[in-house]
Amino acid sequence: MTALVTADPDRIVRTDLAVRTDGLTRRFGKQVAVDSVDLVVPRGAVYGFLGPNGSGKTTTIRMLLGLLSPDAGDIEVLGAAMPQGLASVLPRVGALIEGPAFHPYLTGRANLRRLDACDRTADPRTSKDRIDAALVRVGLLAAGEKKYRHYSLGMKQRLGLAAALLQPRDLLVLDEPTNGLDPQGTREVRHLVRELAADGATVLVSSHLLAEVEQVATHVGIMAGGALLRQGELHEVLGGETAVVRIATPDVDLARPALAALGLELQDDPEGLVADLGGFAPEDVAAAVVGAGARLRGLRVERPHLEELFVSLTGEGFDVLR
Amino acid sequence: MSSVDTYPGAFWRLYRSEARLVLGRRRNIALLVVLAIVPLLIAVGVASSRHQDSGGPAFLGQITGNGLFLVFTALTVCTPLFLPLVVGVVAGDSIAGEAGTGTLRYLLTLPVTRGRLLVAKTLGTLTFTAVSVLVVAVSGLLAGAAFFGLHNVTLLSGDTVSLGNGIGRAGLIALYLVVALFGLAAIGLFVSTITENAIAAMATTVGLAVFSLVLDSVPQLSAIHGVLLTHNWLGFGELLRTQVDSAALLRWSALHLAYAAVFLSLAYARLTTKDVTS
Ligand SMILES: Nc1ncnc2c1ncn2[C@@H]1O[C@H](COP(=O)(O)OP(=O)(O)OP(=O)(O)O)[C@@H](O)[C@H]1O
Ligand SMILES: [Mg+2]
To answer: What is the pTM of this model?
Structure first.
């Protein structure tokens, strides 16, 4: 467990959190789809919500947004207890839940107009401007007059994002926002998430694209089988795994004793030597190699990626567990 | 936080969006077109078979003498089946359709609170019901005028009233029918909160209306006829008498409104506790 979770809970001021759940649990029949989840999403964070298929991410998100009622546990969103605070909190929350959904026989623009008209907090005078701005933001302005039914998968996804961006938001809950997007679209979503975070919004984003998450997330939470296995700041969560230093040198015999003297546990590598970096500074390792008279061809520190951590936590198994 | 404030006129905007959604949908427009054609078909049929007095629905015999009777005939023809069908389709689709396409979860997270959503959906369905009845009546009036001309009206009781009075009575008949169909609309709205399958909701609603009609036609069940959903739908003939039994009309309307109240309450109870997993 990470600092955020193990820290004295009283030290975390409630309003510093955009989302907090306490023992959140939901069953479907006998299956416990979400099992005592304690989410902690600080304000301003980009929280990568990860987990294999069926691990309970969408179910958790549905409970946060008041679509599903929990069997047990408390929820707080933007400082208000749910579901009592739904009506006052949701206007400040933009959401994409398990893919976009719109009326197929209306155009993209008409669908946004419909949503805006149903939003009691939306200013009708600025409706058109906000719809235009949202369409521009997701690169869909040119296709706004097309029927939703004729949209491609990625266009549908973009329209879903546009809907979440119709109003200024304090919290965005994006369930797999990059699903079906082309590389440009995926990159745009990454920029978008950064932009939103820079504007002060909190973004809770579930995704299977771990490399993407690693680039934008400040925090991650990893679900499996309904339980939240790990959460906290990205570097802390990753920091639990050790970095590896890879030393490329043709003079292995010269380098080995010097590095061993330093205290590294060495193993052979096709290019030279490899060792767990532990607490050593890379520059000290380099100095030791050179100081021993070995020619240093290259030195690389490999930090573990989210993918390795994810697999080590949730297993190699490909099959959906239940 | 000012962005959380409700804008004045927000509900009116929601209602208009709802009305536009049902009235703009191609399937629903097709239903209205069918309703508009019914009086035309009756007019053509009657015009091409003059002088042959051969039974048929009430008021049919008077049409050739006065086109206004085409309005009454067309409403009589449409009331048992066509109008319930149309109301069943729109009411059954109202919430189940949104659940089926997944748009319900996005409405609820805007948020449109669940009670507000039910009110908007109810008003949208009622609007479509009223438009449907009006389409039959207006189409009947226009076709009647074109084919047979409009004249002073001889009532069922034998008295004659002015054309204006007759049109006024036609308007009251339309109003009575909207109230009568409200009961069915409420049943449809309730069914629509139970399922995500809009087609099933429509079929169930229309099926219940047909079921009530069937029960109504079994004489042995006359004990329950008085409280059947459909029993008094054709009671609007009362408005074509000199001495209108307004007590009876109010009693029947109260029954329809009681149906509406019961099923809207059930719909509210269901919708406000429903898990939205679509
Ligand atoms: N309405 C439902 N009825 C029964 N079981 C459900 C329902 N919704 C979800 N589940 C079950 O709950 C578990 C969690 O589902 P959930 O959709 O939350 O997973 P997820 O983490 O979002 O997966 P994915 O990455 O595939 O989107 C799954 O086993 C799923 O089958
Ligand atoms: Mg999911």
So the answer is: 0.88
